[in-house]
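INPUT
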Amino acid sequence: GAVVSQHPSWVICKSGTSVKIECRSLDFQATTMFWYRQFPKQSLMLMATSNEGSKATYEQGVEKDKFLINHASLTLSTLTVTSAHPEDSSFYICSARAPDYEQYFGPGTRLTVT
Amino acid sequence: QKEVEQDPGPLSVPEGAIVSLNCTYSNSAFQYFMWYRQYSRKGPELLMYTYSSGNKEDGRFTAQVDKSSKYISLFIRDSQPSDSATYLCAMSVAAGNKLTFGGGTRVLVKP
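OUTPUT
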């Protein structure tokens, strides 16, 4: 199956700093990627849809100025959590839509804000 | 009311038993249905993908979709301890569109 990677897999940052998470499709081009957030023992909640070459579409209740998304190429989307606070601590997962329309998920990034 | 409902479990079964999972949904626009398996602190892994009512089989896995009842199921035959994970149903209104997930069911297969 198709492979999607995320970097870093785990990051700890101090409150008030910004953190960038990368999502890469390794063996296919993805015009669309999705960013999800998952709290412990809860399901995935879609944050935004990232489209290559255009602005991301954010779900209701997600602050676009806090969660900056850039889909710079057909294989890379980045999520930047700006001015992170402890309540932003979570598991962030991306998925990439392959040409066959299936979505392949990355392994996730665990963010801890102290 | 959530768009997709899924019993959180945990569901504990002995090795070799059939695991039965299901989800109900309220949005009749959903046309594509998926089941994912997620191990702790890992990304979801696609198990099954269907878009029509009826059954679809792949190895030990069988997915059922009943659009008239807005009900989908996943059956795992001959369950193994390695099947212990959280199983998530997901749906979309069109192929490749954003997914709406159920809450996930935690499954434990005991040796």
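end of record. The interface with chain A takes residues 6, 36, 41-46, 49, 88, 95-96, 98-104 of chain B (CB under 8 Å).
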